[in-house]
Amino acid sequence: MKKNSLPDLTHISHLRGKKACFAGVGTQAGWVIPVDVLIRNGGMEVIDCNNHVKSVINYFGPSCAVNALINKYNPIGDNSDRLCELCIGRVPGEKCTTADPYAGFEGAFRCLVDKGEVAFLKHTTVQEMIEGRIDAYGLTKENFELLCTDGTRQPVDNYQSCNWGQVPSNAVMTTSAKSTQIRRYYQQFLIKTVQLFGGPVPPQRTQDGLTKENFELLCTDGTRQPVDNYQSCNWGQ
């Protein structure tokens, strides 16, 4: 949230009717966790147990949650466009899709800055947007604060004690048809790539011609170090 905004909000149930920015329907941190918390503790009514988009539409005011109108989440075509009202789109057909400027966690942050009242983000998003190469409108992390599930607020850095839940790390997978040695080569390549390009302000190009844009096809700016947990195939942030 923007710091000191919505002074009347002292419980998460007071989010009803507010303008929300989601990373996208179906994303873990940007949709599944917050919707679950609001159903359990925030007074969000389940309108359709097979389509929680309708529950969110009924709960929030004009918002942006890309993919709210695609067939997967709107199977019979009767979702309203409330979760697309804050989305912008730069060209016809882009609004409220994954190509929308407000899509993803970076997009949800932009939505919060431009139009929204609350955004559901990863704990790293604000820092990445403030410190990274993305224009953050000259803001600092002190311009934002976390809304805790008990209705209190804390500084952005206090995410360990003020959060809405944990989600699994992203995983990198390959086929089991590859030999153990080849899979080890893949791991070594990924580790080296993160060493070269990880962090908020990595170099844009190496002497080998690898670029930051190549890196972003696989990892986010928040990637610091892949965790080599070979047996469980579970890589950390």
UniProtKB/TrEMBL annotation:
GO terms for cellular component: early endosome; extracellular space; plasma membrane; recycling endosome. Gene3D superfamilies: Periplasmic binding protein-like II (3.40.190.10). Residues 1-237 form the Transferrin-like domain. It holds the Pfam family Transferrin. InterPro entries: Transferrin-like_dom. GO terms for biological process: iron ion transport. This is Ovotransferrin-like.
